[in-house]
Amino acid sequence: MMLDIKGVIFNKSSLGQVLASRRSLFLQRPLSSQAKPRAMDNSNSSSSTSSAANPKVHRLQQLISHHEYSPSGGWEKSWEEGVTPWDIGRPTPVVVHLRQTGALPFGNALVPGCGSGHDVVAMACPERRVVGIDIAEFAIKKAKESFSSLPNANYFTFLKADFFTWRPNELFDLIFDYTFFCAIEPEMRSAWARKIDEMLKPHGELITLMFPVSDHVGGPPYKAAVSDYEEVLHPCGFEAISIVDNDLAIKPRMGNEKLGRWKRSQKSLL
Ligand SMILES: C[S@@+](CC[C@H](N)C(=O)[O-])C[C@H]1O[C@@H](n2cnc3c(N)ncnc32)[C@H](O)[C@@H]1O
C-alpha cells in the first residue's frame, strides 16, 4: 500500500511497481500524461485511488528531487506553484480539540515546518506564545499576510528559518510536529530528534501527529510509523507518554494518523 500526502491509498499496481527509493519515484510517467490536477481540499481526495489522481504529490516529489542540493529550493518552488497538497486550509481538528480541552501545555511553543500557519494561530493565546518556522519564504509571507491582523496576533510569530540550523533565543515548553517529520529526508530524522532535544526545555513536551503511519516507500511524504519516531527519539532520552489513533483525522487520513506525546524519561533527566 502507498499513501499520498493527503492519506489517499495508492495500490501498488497503479504505480506499476514498488518503488525502491525516492529517486525511483521520479521515474513514473511524466506529469503531462497524468490526470489533470485537482484541488486538494478534503472534499475531493477521499475517492482517489491512484497516483495519477493526485498529480500534485507527484509534482511535489519532482520539485524536491530537482532541488535536492538546496534545502529550501524545492519547497519554495512548491509554494510558488501552489503545489501544497498537504494543506487542509484550516487548523488541524485535533489541535483545536487539544486546545479547547486544555490538553496543550502553556508557555513557549514551536511549530517546525508550519506551512500556511493555521496550527500556529490555533494554538496561540496569552498563555501560549507560538513560533512557526518554515524554510519557504513564500509560506511565511502568506502566513503573515493571512493572520497578522487577528486578535491573537500578539501571541504568534512567523519566521523564515531552516529548522536544522535555526538558533532560537529561548527553549520551548512544547514542540508540535505535523507533516514535517514525513516531509524531511529519512536520513535527516536523527538530526530532527537531536534538534528537538536541543530546543525543548527539560520538562517540555513534544507532540507528534504522526502521518502517514504506513509502510510505503519513497516520498515526500515519507512513511512515519511509530517505530520511525522511536528509533530517533529514544536515543535522545524521549519516551512516549501516550500514543493513540487520531479519531479526529480528516477523512482521507483517517486510520493513518496517530497522536504521540513524548517527554524525556526520568532517567535521562537525572
Ligand atoms: C508537508 S508541509 C507541512 C506544513 C504544515 N505543517 C501543515 O501541516 O500544513 C512541510 C513544510 O515544511 C517546510 N520545510 C521543509 N524543510 C524545512 C526545514 N528544513 N526547515 C523548516 N521548514 C521546512 C516546507 O516548506 C513545508 O511548508
From TrEMBL:
Keyword Transmembrane in record: no
Comp. bias regions, Low complexity: 42-54
One annotated GO molecular function: S-adenosylmethionine-dependent methyltransferase activity
InterPro entries for this protein: SAM-dependent_MTases_sf, TPMT
Keywords annotated in UniProt: Methyltransferase, Phosphoprotein, S-adenosyl-L-methionine, Transferase
Region (Disordered) location: 31-55
The UniProt record lists the keyword Methyltransferase: yes
Any one GO biological process: methylation
PANTHER family the record matches: PTHR32183, THIOL METHYLTRANSFERASE 2-RELATED
The name this protein goes by in its record: TPMT family
Organism encoding this protein: Dillenia turbinata
